[in-house]
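Example for tutorial group B:
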């Protein structure tokens, strides 16, 4: 038995059976079944995502200290790395805590993809949800765009607000390094949503629906745990 068969027997088939069961309970509609399944999965993953949310909140709180370290040891990468690790250790922060939920979400997405590959033509269950056939790509691009938008909002919320340090007089070299880091961070902020839109447009719209619901759930969790985060900057700009 290869890895694909093991994955199918342990995850894909049980998820498929549960999705069909849930769809039958929700007015025999596959789209509603996907929404219900996604919400249930997110609730089940709450114990795993809480450490990640706490990690994000703490990282926002210690952002000024991290900036101080960059200004102080920016030219000494080894020392900067040591001080960075020391600061995280002082606040009991484990970087892996912020990665696990995303890894799990991708794992669930892969499983959902395998479910769609296996075929979802079940007698008596509608595949239509509003204007979409959830087993086919979204020709309107509404769901892929929503997937990218929710991903962008969530990514921005994870970023702390950028505040200028009082000691603004620094060497041109340090300024250029900080500017380069800020540029890379900004590029990464938009890269993931763009990739999400491109990938979602080629996949069955049911997967886009899953991504929209799952990411919206994460946005709500993040808001109640840490507030708006970096999203507050955009809202302030819109108010002007």
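The residue assignment follows.
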């Amino acid at each position: 038995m290869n890895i694909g068969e093991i994955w199918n027997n342990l995850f894909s088939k049980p998820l498929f059976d549960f999705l069909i069961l849930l769809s039958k309970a929700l007015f025999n509609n596959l789209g509603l079944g996907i929404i219900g399944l996604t919400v249930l999965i997110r609730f089940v993953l709450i114990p795993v995502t809480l450490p990640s949310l706490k990690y994000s909140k703490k990282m926002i709180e210690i952002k000024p200290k991290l900036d101080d370290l960059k200004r102080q040891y920016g030219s000494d990468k080894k020392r900067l790395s040591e001080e960075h690790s020391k600061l995280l250790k002082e606040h009991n922060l484990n970087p892996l805590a912020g990665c696990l939920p995303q890894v799990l979400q991708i794992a669930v997405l892969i499983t959902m993809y395998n479910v769609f590959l296996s075929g979802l033509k079940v007698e008596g269950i509608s595949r239509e949800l509003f204007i979409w056939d959830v087993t086919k790509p979204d020709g309107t691009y509404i769901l892929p765009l929503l997937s990218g938008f929710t991903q962008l909002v969530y990514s921005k919320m994870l970023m702390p607000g950028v505040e200028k340090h009082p000691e603004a007089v620094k060497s041109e070299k340090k300024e250029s390094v900080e500017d380069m880091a800020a540029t890379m961070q900004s590029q990464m902020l938009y890269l993931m949503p763009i990739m999400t839109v491109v990938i979602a447009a080629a996949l069955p719209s049911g997967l886009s629906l899953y991504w929209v619901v799952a990411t919206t759930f994460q946005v709500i969790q993040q808001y109640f745990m840490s507030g708006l985060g970096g999203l507050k900057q955009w809202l302030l700009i819109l108010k002007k």
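Residues 162-175 have pLDDT under 50 and may be disordered. Compare this with the pattern of hydrophobic and polar residues in the output above.
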